[in-house]
Write the structure tokens for this entry.
Amino acid sequence: MDSLEEIMLFVKAGDDGKRYGACPFCQRLFMILLAKATQQQLQFKVATVSFAKPPDVFRKLTLRRVPALVHGETALDNFDEILQYLDDTFPTPSLDYDDVDADKCCRDVFQKFCYYVKDVSKDPSHLEAELAKINDVLASRTSQFLCGDHMTHLDFELLPKLHQIRVAAKALKGFEISSKLKHLWGYLARAYSDDMFRQACPPDQEIIVHWAEKPETPNLSMEEKARLAREKPKYSFDIPICPL
């Protein structure tokens, strides 16, 4: 297959049917494609998919979910298969990592966030403990990211989730990541200054609506939802002043 043939990445559409929706898996693949494109000739486009009216090519290829990827005759909508395909077809830069401690510290944070935002757990202490684990591992490193000075698959997995935790937990539960977690905030700051993260990131409004529509989460009134839809897209890329 000609690797220069253009790739089409289908991602979740936002509530307005056009903006990027709040799917961390979609953002992760978008960032991976941007990373791969920095070191080799790789051409791709990103299209949003609203399942109320999916694009014709999406329907014709009988794709059923997002993220989905089309490259020549290859059409995939299984996330793990897409990851493997991109690494096999575009091996540079390598995004692999081998770091047990880094992998372990990230394992449960998103689950604890889901429990908290859905009121399965009323108390944020379990989420706070998982965030502190990540902060401690980052404190033990001199590198820019979890496993080195460039992002790996682990960073591409964790950073979109951390950002959604930040935005959704604050909007729906009044929870803020502690400014005492200065290494975690420094990690987020490096992501926020990276074009790959900023280009692939959904706006705050989409993240808030996405989580508010989940079962058992604090819901939004019709007025609040309409207000968010009208607002200019907002991105929480600011960083608190952290204590020394």
